[in-house]
Each structure stands twice: as C-alpha cells, then as structure tokens.
Amino acid sequence: MPGIKIKTHMSAPIDAGEITLLPISQSIHWIEKKFGLVWNRPYAIRVEHNQSTYQLPIRDMTRVYLILLWGLTAIFSLVFVSAKPNRRSK
What we know:
Blueprint: E1 3-10, E2 14-16, E3 19-31, E4 36-49, E5 52-57, H1 61-82
Antiparallel strand pairs: 1-3, 2-3, 3-4, 4-5
C-alpha cells in the first residue's frame, strides 16, 4: 500500500529508583512499489513518578538547524539569481 504512514513506538520501560522512564520514538514510512523511505526520530519520554505520569517532548535540534539552513540557502539562491545583471547584446 503506497502512502505515508506515521507510527509511534514505545520502548521497554527503564526503572531508575522510584522513577520509571518510557522512551517513545516516531517513524515516518513512505513505501512505494520499488522503493521507500523511512525516517526515525526520538519523540518523547514518558515519566512515571509517585502515581503521576507526564510526558517530556524531545526537540530535534538537528531538524531545526537543517530547516534553517535550507531556508537560508533558498533565500541566498533567489537573491543571487535576481541580482544577476541582464546583459543585452547590441
């Protein structure tokens, strides 16, 4: 079945004294007939402590920096292409 699928995976819990940590990851699949792409990333950590449970999101700074770099590359490319002098032959 072609298309994009997003799945959330939970790892085995890690006990650290009174605290239990549960790592959560996310995978994005795009599978076609002859090729496909899979991207895995950390998503969050679920913390259980004294009958309370909360989830801490994980910020993927590499992705943020890559998006910033791609944006700057696009801006400088557009500036370079638009600033080129037009030469007219006489």
